[in-house]
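Course assignment 3, question 2. Fill in each field.
Student: A.L.
Task: Predict the tertiary structure for the chain below.
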Amino acid sequence: MLVNCVAYREGQKLADIPLQDVQQYMAQPNCFVWVAIRDPEPGELEQLQGEFNLHDLAVEDAHKGHQRPKLEEYGRSLFVVVQSVELGDDGLHTGQISIFLGAGYVLSVRRGTQYGFTELRGRTEREPELLTHGPGYVLYALLDTVVDRYFPILDALSDEIEALEDRIFSGQTTRAQIEAVYGLKRKLMQLKHAVSPLIEVVDKFYGGRVPAMCAGLQAYFRDVHDHLERLDQSIDNLRDMLSTVVSVNLALISLQENEVTKRLASYAALIAVPTLIVGVYGMNFAHMPELQWRFGYPAILGGMVLIDVWLFSRFRKAKWL
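Answer field:
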């Protein structure tokens, strides 16, 4: 599905144009076209491949989706893959944004993503002095927008972890909490798979040999790289925190089991003493102490009660009961 196709010259928007006119505008000096499509139907990418002379392997990767973030150079053209991550009610949803750059064109193809780049296009059009850098600046703007969308997701996951910690320390240690911990670990791993490979990709745009169409934009790409490094470190910190939560949760479960064991042992002791005394008097011996004593029965019962009261007070003092 074609979202838009716009021609620019020297940082200024010329017009929304039909696809069949892109070659006409690309041939003009200081002019480039920015084409955006979403979830392309079979045949749409092949049509654009003919218009922009896209490499077969790059088109194949854009068709398949679910590619690892990467940068490929095909002659004087670039192919960049970025993963979008969106938070839904049923978890994280990962999509793919494929970006083709060449002399006079930018083609962005997004699959499985809910949010587009309409606001980004409007922002870049309000910055003509930067848009004069051409396709390279559009690539930076797309990468910067995708990376900025990672931060709210990381904040949401951090809030989930804090809420989970509160539930665990409030004594709600259940199977559901363990499952929630591993669910959060999976979400962090999804975000990690989108962020970590992208660091290496962005690094190639400001360090070492920079592609010609991105020359002069190293400071902008370095800013994106710094954001990615901060994201990657925060993800690692949250993963460590989750590992700690799991350890604490298991320790709390062990403590709860110990408390139960102590209570059972205490009640068993309270029952064992009277049982021992009654068991002795139930034995078949002719000569038993105090059998003929008038107060023998109440004395034995009173003795058992006193012993149990003393044991109970000791267990309460030791916080076993």
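Instructor remarks: The first strand starts at residue 2 and ends at 9. The two ends are 69 Å apart (CA to CA).
Grade: pending
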